[in-house]
Structures are given as C-alpha cells and as structure tokens.
Amino acid sequence: EPQQTEEPAQSTGLFEAANREFESTESGSDTSDISEELSIQDGEGKSPGEAASGLKTGPEDSALPDTQLQKEERPTSTCYSSDVVGEVVKTMQHFMEKFSMDLFTVTQAFLKNTGEVETTLYFLQTGQRLDGYPVWSREDDLELQKDDECVRNKLIAKFGAENVAKRVAFRKS
C-alpha cells in the first residue's frame, strides 16, 4: 500500500491525516463509528457550523491523526520495505516450526547461507548447501573482509566465485 506521509508528521500533517480519514469513510473503512458520532452531534440541536467548529477542537480531531499516523509510520521506520521484512519473518517462523528450532539457530542458518531461502531450507534439512559448497563461518567472513587477493582466491576455491560475490553483496546490505 502506498505510503502517504513520507516526512515525520508535523502539526500540518495532522489535519491532512484527519481529513483523509473523513474522506475514506465512504469506502467503508474502519472510521464508520466516527461518522455516526457526527450525526449524533448534529441531532443534538447544534447548527452545522457549531458541530464543525466543535470538530476542530473536539477529542475526535486528536484521536484521528494518532490512529492514522501509527498505521503509516510502521513501514517507513524500517530501511527495508515492510513486504520484504514480512516475508523473511514468515519464512523464519515457518522454518522454526518445521524443524523445531529456535530463532537463533534459524537466523544463523540464514546468515551462513547468505540469506538465500532455498539454500537455507536445504541446509536445515540436510546440514549442507544445495550447491555442495560449505556454509559461511565467522572466520570466512573475517577473511573476506581482508582485501587480499590470495585470501580471496582461497575463498573462491572453497565457496565458488558466485557465492563469494553474493557474500560480498550480502555483507554490504
């Protein structure tokens, strides 16, 4: 779903959020109870003008932006899109249930396998990688960080050039 507010919500954004919330009542969103409150107010013998001015200062106005902003802020607070993170979390939970492992073990398996889902799944099932190469260890990662061609060639011999390239990109992400 498109993120409507990119900037942190200043007070100007609050009113826009409130307005948006009202406009969305036609679409049968979760604000229908608010529109009922409004019609009750009108029925109490207030003129529409009073009801409208009451809105700006009334509790409804402060309640709306809060719910709106909470909905919008969550995805923007992470550097990944929430879809990607959601998928990874789902996959990890699935693996935890499937293999009766704790989060730490599954996370480690992902890290050792450069975050590749299929490879990690195969690794958890069989204890080895799909492509037959070994998994990455902390030592290998430290070696990888050295800018030494000799060391790099050893890693390529051990893991394959493609895996080394993927690992470099993975470490940067």
From TrEMBL:
InterPro entries: Rap1_C, Rap1_C_sf, TE2IP/Rap1. Residues 96-171 form the TRF2-interacting telomeric protein/Rap1 C-terminal domain. The keyword NAD does not apply. GO terms for cellular component: shelterin complex. GO terms for molecular function: telomeric DNA binding. Residues 1-80 are annotated as: Disordered. It is found in: Nucleus; Chromosome, Telomere. It holds the Pfam family Rap1_C. GO terms for biological process: protection from non-homologous end joining at telomere; regulation of DNA-templated transcription; telomere maintenance via telomere lengthening. Keywords: Activator, Chromosome, Nucleus, Telomere, Transcription, Transcription regulation. The keyword Nucleus applies. It comes from the Eukaryota. Residues 1-13 have a biased composition (Polar residues). Acts both as a regulator of telomere function and as a transcription regulator. Involved in the regulation of telomere length and protection as a component of the shelterin complex (telosome). Does not bind DNA directly: recruited to telomeric double-stranded 5'-TTAGGG-3' repeats via its interaction with terf2. Independently of its function in telomeres, also acts as a transcription regulator: recruited to extratelomeric 5'-TTAGGG-3' sites via its association with terf2 or other factors, and regulates gene expression. Homodimer. Belongs to the RAP1 family. This is Telomeric repeat-binding factor 2-interacting protein 1. It comes from Aptenodytes patagonicus. The lineage of its organism: Eukaryota, Metazoa, Chordata, Craniata, Vertebrata. The gene is TERF2IP.
